[in-house]
Amino acid sequence: MDIPDRLAQYGHNELGGAGGIKWYTVLSYQLKDAINYILVAVTVLSFVQRDYITGSLILAITLFNTCLSVHQGYQAEQTMQALRGMSSPTACVIRNGEESVVSSRDVVPGDVLVIQEGDSIAADVRLFFVTNFEVNEALLTGESEHVSKKLDPLEKGDMPLGDRSNMAYSSTIASKGR
């Protein structure tokens, strides 16, 4: 399969949702959460039974929970917007046995990325050759320590993405090795 066919099948290497979502959309998702229905029902029952202190306390907890969840959801969306803007503009790939530089948008499954120290990684990749390779994943995890990457098989197939030492992720920075 050639590059145009892969682009047609998989699309461009871009994070989706370029428009982002608004805070009131996050609020509507939060209000539809089942736990909020339960808390509101308990609040109403408390007021019906004239237990105003318990009802008020549960209502306050519900409002606090909703506000906190909306804030966190909106912050997560803002982080995704920032990641969309920080993706690498180009990538060094090996196609048909030749090394070339392409737009990161045009990286497709099957491309072999050549990643060197200082490069912003253009796509999520499975590593199959590394030399003393470390990646700064602070944009994804918030952890400032660089992560050593290895080729060792994973202990479990269902490991969280952050624990997969044989993977590197888009928008992270190669901080050491290649």
Automatic annotation (TrEMBL):
The UniProt record lists the keyword Nucleotide-binding: yes
Keyword Kinase: no
Annotated region (Disordered), positions in chain: 152-178
Record's keyword terms, sorted: ATP-binding, Nucleotide-binding
All copies of domain Cation-transporting P-type ATPase N-terminal, residue ranges: 4-46
Lineage: Eukaryota, Fungi, Fungi incertae sedis, Zoopagomycota, Entomophthoromycotina
Pfam families hit by this protein: Cation_ATPase_N (PF00690), E1-E2_ATPase (PF00122)
Protein name: Uncharacterized protein
Origin superkingdom: Eukaryota
Localisation per UniProt entry: Membrane
Gene Ontology annotations for the cellular component aspect, listed alphabetically: membrane
A molecular function GO annotation: ATP binding
Cited InterPro entries: ATPase_P-typ_cation-transptr_N (IPR004014), ATPase_P-typ_TM_dom_sf (IPR023298), ATPase_P-typ_transduc_dom_A_sf (IPR008250), ATPase_P-type_domA (IPR059000), P_typ_ATPase (IPR001757)
UniProt biased composition (Polar residues): 167-178
